[in-house]
Each structure stands twice: as structure tokens, then as C-alpha cells.
């Protein structure tokens, strides 16, 4: 507790109000809690009574099928009714209401989770433990090919300690669970669900259906989802109008899976196809033809003389004329086809508790269409295989050992082919062990990775390897209380894009240059998490410090009329932050939740990192009466004025959100629910600081979503 109590006094100004408010509620909860109090739901529970208990939730990504309260690192799990109501059109939108997580927000079609100020390859997105291969780590305007409407559970492990899923995930791991590969034959021969919803902000419509059936040892699963949304409406007062041009999103997904299921396990295959067509707001054609002279930008006849304003005025005029000539925004036309192999065999032979298999092959391609013609084509063909063996307890140790291997071939052809074709191969060996002693659970992990990245056009290859380790412990301080801490050293090899990028990237208004001599990053992270899972007051609060040696970032060397020259460089950096959620049960039907987060990121040699999310605080009142559930929330986002060079500050904003749900058929075999969620009821004009296109694509204005879900 010493570190937790001392943190706010040394925290920067943005931390202090949040930290003090959280600690005040923690103190009041600790003072009023009794050891033998009946358990009450935590912050994410679907029930609100003082004497209610929180159902056990298993974290699949933990490796050892642990519960949330047993985890040494901070974790969030969305499932059941909470997931149904929180689902958005993208994975980033679905998760951005969780402490420590925001969405990258590139219009309506692409939004990837940003965890603790880190995004891209530092946040690994999995589908039931296997890496989800797409192009979203390369650029924020590329969509994540995970459909939230078809997810059964979403797990988020924060920080770099989830070494069984890769040392490169120094920001965290997002594991999207689905039912596309059946693991059991339904007892009545079939089961499924169907959902429809409609929203007002983009005049959007969406629906999903999933059915699993089987007989004997065979089970089959079929699922499909679709979404059709127009340009969305922003808050009042935006000088660009009422809707964001080109922010439409039309997505279709479908899967077919077949499994053999026995008494000791299962083995199955699934084929998934997703198509999407969405716009790219903020895309500028005024930079076409721009190139570099040394460490300076040069665009056409522009002499790039910063001392002569007339030159800038001429370039601005040409810039706008060029935009006017091209008219409509570019459109992404995406197709992804994936084959998943999943299996598990329990107690296959003496000394082995389980043998698990995950494999996948992905064929991904998307065209960026401008003026009705294909301007750039991105392709990503990848396959990976993961095998892990969980052993029976040995001298009190329970754990697993595994190997993962993967290969990715990426290419871009056309106007924005700023990365030459590359082939990346990687192999990782990992070990995870736990030991329980009384009220303590101790966990250790070790991993070694090797990676080679070859630029196919120039035949240049760079290899990196690194060893990572973590040690964590959870102490049940008292009944219902636990204190967890994790210390991690993680090595992340540079991506092929960081090594070999060289060219104009108009979606982000940057000219990017890689560096083939980049070294691996070394992250040293400390997490401290305090939880209370029973009684009228429950909470989960974490503080962390992540020092990264050789941190790879795009350093701005030059700027010309909004276009930035980014050189991938290395420097030591430090990320510190606090995040948490506290819930107080006021009565058996009513509860009050305070949640928030704040992160600060700086280069150790001086200077700030760009697009770091501002501090947030949310206050939510929830209630339940018979078959009704409802909540009302005020979210306050602070102004972000701690900005990097060439980056503009972003004003803060407040949003009023509302949720309402009615559950029917609870006593029958066909339960259903009707739900309504309203966001930004005051129609506030708001901007996302983490977005590359924040000014061209503000956040959505007043939005009401009405939906219905049926399970059968």
C-alpha cells in the first residue's frame, strides 16, 4: 500500500484529482467493509444488489484459465449483457469505455485499441489466443478484422507481462473470444442467438446471427453479421458542417466451423470471410509529389523557405485547389479470408494436464480507391501456429510450456506504397509457472523470441532476438481484498515498417522513413493493483511505471503545411499512469461507480510523445428493478496540452450517456432483451486527441441506439 498511497503526491497535475478521488472511495470502502459481508457485484457486474455475488469469470488469455481476482496484472473482461450493451462498430469503439483504453478513431471504419498510451504492434489483438493478422498495426486507417457483434467475450490484459502471447505486446493484449470453432455439442442439439440494432448518428443498421448444432461427436457452427452506416453526425458547432464526409462503414462477416468433440477434448476448423467498404476522412491530396531533400521536405515548386511567408501562401492555395479537384474522400475496399485451426486434448498422457493447438492462415487484401480507381493495394498473407502443453503439478508448481511460429508477407503497390514488400518470420518459446502458498499466488514467465525481417526488393534482412521475463504475485490481504504486483522485462523487435518504411503516407499526412539499424526495445515495467471483490464497496485500481530503453518512435524532422517528415528513431522513454474503477452499492437496487485513467509519456532526454490520451473521469449511477436495468453516466475528458513538437493541443469535453435494458423470457428457453443506449446527449462537439484525423473527423454527436437480442 505504501507505493499506492504515495503515488498521487508525486503525480503530475492531471493525475491528482483522479488519484485523490479514487483513494478517498477506497478508504471509505475499507473502513465500512466487514470480513463476513455478503459478496456484492464488482463494477462490471450485471446485478446491483448489496448481497449479490459476482459470477466467476475465467480469463482465457491468462494461459492457466484463471479468474479475474487471481491475475497478477490488471485485466478487464467484457461478457454477457455488459458486452451486448457496450459493443460498437469497431473493436476500439467497443473498449474505449474501459479504464486505460481508448480507440485510435479514424472515422467510423477503423479504430484500434490504444492501451496506456501505446498502439500499433505494441497492442496484440488475438482471436481465441491466435494472432489476428490484418494491416491494422501498419496504419491507423486500416481496420481490425474482428467483428464485435460476433464476440462472446473480450479480454484485455494491460502491460507487457502476458508473455505467453508475445513479448512485443508491451502495451497489452486484447483477446476476442468467439464460437466459430465449437468446443461442445449442444445438449438439446442446437443453440444460438440473433441480434438487431439501429442507430441515429449515422442512420446505421446492424445485425448478427449465430447457430451451433450437432449430433454424436460432431458440431457445426454458422454465424454472420452485417453493418450499414452512413456518414455520422458530429456535435453542434463544427465548422465542417453536421456530418463527417466519407465516414460511412459497410461491413459483412461470415464464418463456418466444424469440430469433432470427444470426452477428452475437441479438434476443429473454421473459415471466416470479411468484406468492408469504408471512407477515409481527412485524406489530403495536396501532398502528392512531395519528397525529401536530406532531412527537409520538398513539394513541387515549393522552395521550403520557412522565412518567406509568401511561399507558404502559394503552397496552401495549391493544396486547396488540389483537394477541390479530387472531390470525394478515398474509400477502402477490404477482403479478409482466414482459416482457424483449434484443438485441445485433456490428460493425453501421464504428467500432462492439457495439450492445446492454435493455428491460422490469413489472406488479407484491401484497395484504397480514389476517384473511382485503385490508387494503392495492400496485401498481407500470414500464417501462424501455436502449441502449448500444460503439465500436471510438479512439487507444487503448475504451468505450461509452448512454442509459437509465424510468417507474414506484406506488400503495398501504388501511390502510397511507402513500405516495400517484406517477409517477417518469428519464433517464440515460452514458459509459465505458478506456485500457491497460503494466501499467496506467485507467477513467473520466461520467453525467448527470434525474428527476421527481409525487404524483398532490396534483399536487405535484419534479425533480432531477445529474452523476456516477468515475476508477479497476488496476496489475499483479507477476505475479498487482494494486492497484485508484477515486474516485467520485455524485449520487442522492430517491425518491418519501422525498419524499411520510406515514402509518403497521405492518410496520416506524414512522410515516413525507417531505419534498418534499429535495435530491439527493452521494456522494464512495474504494476501494482489493489482489488476488492466483495461487500458493498468494490474496486480495482492500478498504478504503473514502464521505462523503455531504445523506444522506437516517429521523430519529426521537418514540417511543411501540415505534412510531417517522420524518421523512425530510438530514445529512452517512460510511461507512468493510474487507472481504476470503484463501485459503491447505495441500496440493493442502486449503485454509484467512479472510474478514470491518466497516463503521462515522456522521452527521458526531454520532449513528449504525440497522441497520448488525456486524463478521464467518469461517474455512473446504475439501477435495477425487476426486469429493468439502467444507468446514467457523466464522462469528463481533460484538455490535453502536454503535446509533442508540431502537435496541437486538444480541448477537453464532457459527455452525458444513458443506458436502459429490459430482460424478458427469463423463465423460458428463449430469453431476450431490448436495450437502448444514448451517447453524448448534450450533443457536445468533441475531438479525440489520439486520432491522426481529429480535426477532420470529430467524435460523434448525439446518438441513440436501439437493439434487441434473442438467445435460443
| Helix share bin | under 10%
CATH architecture: Beta Barrel
Number of helices: 6
End-to-end gap: 47 Å
The coarse overall form would be: globular
Query: For this structure, what is the CATH homologous superfamily?
Result: TonB-dependent receptor, beta-barrel domain
Describe the structure.
The structure is a single chain. This protein is mainly beta and 712 residues long. It has one domain (2-283, 329-711): TonB-dependent receptor, beta-barrel domain (Maltoporin, Chain A), CATH 2.40.170.20. It is 9% helix and 52% strand. The protein contains six helices and 35 strands. The chain has a 22-stranded antiparallel barrel. A five-stranded mixed β-sheet has the order 3-8-9-6-7. Helix 1 runs antiparallel to helix 2 (15-32). The model is unreliable at 1-15, 21-54 and 306-327 (pLDDT under 50).
Topology overview:
Blueprint: H1 2-10, H2 15-32, E1 58-59, E2 66-67, E3 75-79, H3 80-86, H4 91-95, E4 101-103, E5 113-115, E6 123-127, E7 130-131, E8 153-158, E9 172-177, E10 190-199, E11 205-215, E12 218-229, E13 249-262, E14 265-279, E15 290-293, E16 296-299, H5 309-326, E17 331-346, E18 352-370, E19 373-394, E20 397-414, E21 422-437, E22 440-455, E23 460-478, E24 481-492, H6 496-500, E25 502-505, E26 510-513, E27 521-532, E28 537-560, E29 563-585, E30 590-603, E31 616-625, E32 628-637, E33 653-664, E34 672-679, E35 703-711
Parallel strand pairs: 6-9, 26-29
Antiparallel strand pairs: 1-2, 3-8, 4-5, 6-7, 8-9, 10-11, 10-35, 11-12, 12-13, 13-14, 14-17, 15-16, 17-18, 18-19, 19-20, 20-21, 21-22, 22-23, 23-24, 24-27, 25-26, 27-28, 28-29, 29-30, 30-31, 31-32, 32-33, 33-34, 34-35
Helix pairs in contact: 1-2
Amino acid at each position: 500500500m505504501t507505493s499506492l498511497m504515495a503515488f498521487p503526491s508525486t503525480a503530475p497535475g492531471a493525475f491528482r484529482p483522479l488519484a485523490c478521488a479514487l483513494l478517498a472511495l477506497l478508504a471509505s470502502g475499507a473502513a465500512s467493509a466487514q470480513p463476513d459481508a455478503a459478496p456484492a457485484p464488482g463494477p462490471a457486474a450485471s446485478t446491483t444488489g448489496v448481497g449479490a455475488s459476482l459470477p466467476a469469470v475465467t480469463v482465457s488469455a491468462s494461459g492457466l484459465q484463471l479468474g479475474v481476482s487471481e491475475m497478477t496484472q490488471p485485466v478487464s473482461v467484457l461478457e454477457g449483457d455488459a458486452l451486448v450493451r457496450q459493443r460498437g462498430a469497431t473493436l476500439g469503439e467497443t473498449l474505449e469505455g474501459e479504464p486505460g483504453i481508448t480507440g485510435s478513431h479514424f472515422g467510423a471504419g477503423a479504430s484500434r485499441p490504444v492501451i496506456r498510451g501505446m498502439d500499433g504492434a505494441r497492442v496484440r489483438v488475438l482471436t481465441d489466443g491466435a494472432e489476428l493478422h490484418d494491416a491494422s498495426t501498419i496504419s491507423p486507417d486500416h481496420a481490425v478484422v474482428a467483428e464485435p457483434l460476433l464476440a462472446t467475450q473480450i479480454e484485455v490484459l494491460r502491460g507487457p507481462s502476458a508473455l505467453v502471447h508475445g513479448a512485443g505486446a508491451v502495451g497489452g493484449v486484447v483477446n476476442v473470444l468467439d464460437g466459430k470453432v465449437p468446443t461442445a455439442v449442444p445438449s438439446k442439439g442446437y443453440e444460438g442467438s440473433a441480434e438487431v440494432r439501429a442507430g441515429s448518428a449515422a442512420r446505421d443498421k446492424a445485425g448478427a446471427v449465430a447457430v451451433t448444432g450437432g449430433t454424436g461427436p460432431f458440431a457445426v457452427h454458422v454465424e454472420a453479421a452485417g453493418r450499414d452506416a452512413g456518414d455520422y453526425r458530429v456535435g453542434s458547432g463544427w465548422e465542417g458542417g453536421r456530418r463527417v464526409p466519407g465516414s460511412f462503414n459497410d461491413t459483412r462477416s461470415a464464418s463456418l466451423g466444424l469440430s469433432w468433440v470427444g470426452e477428452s477434448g475437441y479438434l476443429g476448423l473454421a473459415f471466416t470471410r470479411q468484406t468492408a467498404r469504408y471512407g477515409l476522412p481527412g485524406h489530403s491530396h495536396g501532398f502528392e509529389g512531395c519528397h525529401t531533400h536530406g532531412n527537409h521536405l520538398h513539394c513541387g515548386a515549393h522552395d521550403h523557405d520557412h522565412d518567406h511567408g509568401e511561399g507558404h501562401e502559394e503552397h496552401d492555395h495549391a493544396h486547396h485547389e488540389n483537394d477541390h479537384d479530387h472531390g470525394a474522400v478515398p474509400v477502402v475496399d477490404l477482403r479478409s479470408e482466414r482459416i482457424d485451426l483449434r484443438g485441445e486434448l485433456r490428460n493425453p498422457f501421464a504428467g500432462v494436464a492439457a495439450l492445446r493447438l492454435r493455428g491460422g492462415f490469413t489472406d488479407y487484401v484491401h484497395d484504397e480507391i480514389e476517384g473511382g480507381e485503385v490508387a494503392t493495394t495492400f496485401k498481407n498473407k500470414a500464417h501462424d501456429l501455436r502449441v502449448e502443453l500444460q503439465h500436471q503439478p510438479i512439487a507444487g508448481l503448475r504451468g505450461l510450456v509452448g512454442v509459437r511460429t509465424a510468417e507474414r508477407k506484406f506488400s503495398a503497390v501504388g501511390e502510397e506504397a511507402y513500405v516495400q514488400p517484406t517477409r517477417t518470420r518469428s519464433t517464440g518459446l515460452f514458459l509459465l509457472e505458478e506456485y500457491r502458498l497460503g494466501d499467496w499466488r506467485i507467477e513467473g514467465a520466461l520467453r525467448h523470441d527470434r525474428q527476421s525481417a527481409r525487404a524483398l526488393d532490396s534483399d536487405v534482412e535484419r534479425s533480432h532476438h531477445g529474452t523476456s521475463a516477468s515475476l508477479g504475485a497476488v496476496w489475499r490481504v483479507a477476505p475479498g481484498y487482494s494486492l497484485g504486483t508484477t515486474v516485467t522485462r520485455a524485449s520487442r523487435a522492430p517491425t518491418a515498417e519501422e525498419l524499411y518504411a520510406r515514402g509518403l503516407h497521405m492518410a496520416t499526412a506524414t512522410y515516413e522513413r525507417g531505419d534498418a539499424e534499429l535495435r530491439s526495445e527493452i521494456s522494464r515495467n512495474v504494476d501494482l493493483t489493489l482489488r476488492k471483490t466483495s461487500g458493498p464497496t468494490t474496486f480495482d485500481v492500478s498504478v504503473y511505471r514502464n521505462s523503455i530503453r531504445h523506444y522506437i518512435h516517429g521523430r519529426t524532422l521537418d514540417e511543411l503545411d501540415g505534412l510531417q517528415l517522420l524518421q523512425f528513431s530510438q530514445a529512452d522513454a517512460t510511461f507512468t499512469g493510474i487507472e481504476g474503477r470503484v463501485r459503491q452499492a447505495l441500496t440493493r437496487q442502486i449503485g454509484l461507480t467512479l472510474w478514470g485513467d491518466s497516463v503521462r509519456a515522456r522521452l527521458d532526454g526531454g520532449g513528449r510523445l504525440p497522441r497520448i490520451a488525456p486524463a478521464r473521469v467518469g461517474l455512473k449511477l446504475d439501477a435495477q428493478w425487476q426486469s429493468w436495468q439502467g444507468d446514467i453516466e457523466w464522462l469528463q475528458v481533460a484538455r490535453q496540452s502536454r503535446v509533442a513538437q508540431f502537435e496541437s493541443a486538444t480541448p477537453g469535453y464532457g459527455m452525458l450517456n444513458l443506458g436502459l435494458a429490459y430482460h424478458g423470457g427469463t423463465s423460458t428457453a428463449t430469453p431476450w432483451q431490448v436495450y437502448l443506449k444514448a451517447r453524448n446527449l448534450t450533443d457536445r462537439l468533441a475531438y479525440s486527441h489520439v486520432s491522426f484525423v481529429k480535426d477532420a473527423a470529430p467524435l460523434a454527436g448525439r446518438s441513440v441506439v436501439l437493439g434487441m437480442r434473442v438467445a435460443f
